[in-house]
Amino acid sequence: MEAYYKSKKTSGRIKVSLSYVILTIIAVVFIFPFIWMLSTAFKIPSEAYTLPPKIIPETFTWDNFIQGWQYADFTRYTWNTLIVTGLATIGTVLSASFVAYGFARFKSRYSGLLFTVVLATMMLPSQVTLVPTYLLFTKLGWLDTLMPLIVPSFFGGGAFNIFLLRQFFKTIPKDLDEAAYIDGANAFQIYYKILLPAIKPALITVGLMSITFHWNDYMSPLIYLNSDQNFTLAIGLQFFQNSFGSSQIQMLMAVSLITVIPVLILFFIGQRYFIQGITMTGIKG
Amino acid sequence: MKARNNRIEIREEKQFFLFTSPWLLGFLIFTLYPMGYSIYLVFTDMDMTGSGQFVGFDNIVRAFTQDPLFYRSLLNTLYFVLVSVPASLLMSFLIALLLNQKIKGVGFFRTSFYIPYITSGVAVTLLWGWIFNAQFGFINYFLSLFGITGPNWLSDTKWAMPAIIIMGIWTIGNSIIITLAGLQDIPEALYESAEIDGASSLVKITQITLPLITPTLYFNLVMGIIGGFQIFMQPYILTEGGPSYSTYTYMMHIYNSGFKYNEMGYASTLAWLLFVVIMIITLIVNRTSRHWVYYDN
Fold first, then answer.
1. CA angle at residue B227 from B280 to A97, to 5 degrees?
2. Which of B137, B151, B132 is nearest to A50 (CA)?
3. Which pTM was predicted?
4. Which residue of B has its CA nearest to A18?
5. CA B53 to mean position of chain CA atoms
6. What is the tens place of the pLDDT at every residue in B195-210?
7. Reported ipTM exceeds the 0.95 cut
8. Is the Cβ of B89 closer than 8 Å to some Cβ of chain A?
């Protein structure tokens, strides 16, 4: 019997070590492109194109960052991206939580039906509404402004976020609302002063996901922005590449690195919330 | 008493509509109205300025009979979906399985797998362009270590799409974490009783893990299909659809028709045809799911 357990323990240990080896190899594959980006960004031009490639640059330079950044108006693009990301995220968090509160706390003959509609819109591919939405923004005179990238976020903040926040509101006992109601608070005060603070982690989750989405978004800026001064980083980077191809790769990688870093920092700070948000993706019926 | 109840009900109804009004307005302006208008556009030759005429079924006929790029882009997209979705599903299941053991440093691994997903924007796409560079890229250098001469990835009609698929699989962090969450929901007791019965690891995986994880796999499959059909940014930046349309995806065809060639009516037609294709495939998957997705209740 003891021998049985012993052999089982050994085989378990072998299994775990093997898992470590495989996981480490895969993790290296997943991380390596970033190391490659980092290394290229610090190389002098001639070294970026030498074979075999070196991971640690022989001649270490900051020039790529300075020159790359100055080559196009990246400060301007960053500013635009910050405005879009910031305002769209405020809109998303405020309006998704506001609407989710409505769905979680108030009964209506239509609440069931309307919530089904919310879920249904998650399945609709965005292409179907792409052209009419574009024509609508053209009519409003919002073409080549940041408005189309910001304003829609204030109208509900996206079906998925409404769904996620509603789930969180539902975990908070309704007694809490009722006690506050008896104390004379109105529905808005209950939402603002009691429930919002109670679901703070969920709000952070939604906020973080909105930030990464808008920071990385490519399709909407591509469609709505035309002039250089309105570009976001995504579009600015693509134009930067179009003017160089891969002939100035060390500069391209340096600028790319700068635009990726804020997202990475944000991820490390809010890791727990990211994972929570993804796990909540609502597959548990 | 009844009147009082009615008053409360009416007040609740009012509050419900007050708080959901931002979404309701948004739904009307950004979903329902565009959907209706987009159906109307299918039957017109509208351009960007919003002027056009009624053309009946011309757009639909054109897509099926006069537009070789319609079929080309649809087939390219199907190729992408058919390879990348199953491969991503399998990879994320295997990685999640490894992560679900009692091992230290799960956080580190989870982070490494998730970072590509969170950063997948233009910057990271440009990075992959460099990795796939035929002469100086890392992949071909790595292959050369084994005596293999790598292809001209992005400028070879045979290899450009596989390159984009590889990049796509690299961003599976999201489905890894969803699968991992599903695995952690499986009650430990099931494994313990199987162990008492002397079940091997393989039996435990095929008899317990796999059946119980099917709802999660199903979710990932459907989301993968819907997302896969909309692939745009990666091929648009890396290859612009080339070489000779080998990476020209359906979404690119919609974008080009509408925003490059200024044919909003035709672009809307293509969008609706895509919607129909996605619906049909999702329905087929849903039908078959009865046979392989395990439901508790």
1. 110
2. B137
3. 0.91
4. B98
5. 35
6. 888 888 888 888 889 9
7. no
8. no
